[in-house]
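Input record (one chain):
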Amino acid sequence: MKPPCRDRLSCRGVFLLLVSLVSFSGCGEKSPATAIPAISVAPAPAASTATVPAYSYQVVGTFPHDRAAFTQGLIYLKGVLFETTGLVGASSLRKVELQTGRVLQKSSLPPPYFGEGMTVLGDKIYQVTWQNQKGFVFNLSTFEQEKEFSYTGEGWGLTTDGHALILSDGTNVLRFLDPVSFKLLRSIAVFDRGQPVRNLNELEFIKGEIYANVWQTNTVIRVDPANGALLGVIDFTGLLTPDDYRGGRPDVLNGIAYDAAGDRLFVTGKNWPKLFEVQLQPK
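The corresponding structure, as predicted from the sequence alone:
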């Protein structure tokens, strides 16, 4: 999420994993999202003292990534990546060659829009914007804009379970939207031992779970889409090395993509020079 940190290196500090992930302002130029108007949310699972599974990772592949890409949304589809980038005047929708990082196709989002997360459902690309309360639907092949849609509050991340669009807004609430009418179908709230897990950002639906990046941390959480229960916490600390900071200033972790056919997981970050294929390892 959002505008670059004033001190980007400090944003890469290690955050405790099963943190009592309460709201914090961090080092960004904006505060975490304010609460959206009251909506009906599925009851949170009862607070549990059970240990949530924790994971580290092993890097199994490294690919080039455009340092100029302030990554917001990331999808792997049929051998290529689809990526959205943010910042006003630099927001774009891209089709990217995985092996080289080369941009194969691009459509820019004009000011005043600050592009955010995206997902693909059928032959449509859906993208949201940060504070404009407006999303866009593009043709998957041509990138031509086909329609607009509206929602309340902010737009951060977007994914799909194959039926509904799943929207994050910087709070601990995930909203499920009808992909045709864009009406709210239901919502879930994510808690860790009774504490709300805020700053949910980039999303990916993987094997029946929602993977959510926690903004300004190296943490990705795994969420039960039925009730918001926390299923796992992944620590991606250490993906970048000091050499990766030469010639650029990488920002925070953001960008999750999954190759269902090959069972491959990819992660990257805003203005990162690399995209990583990783395998999760229980701690």
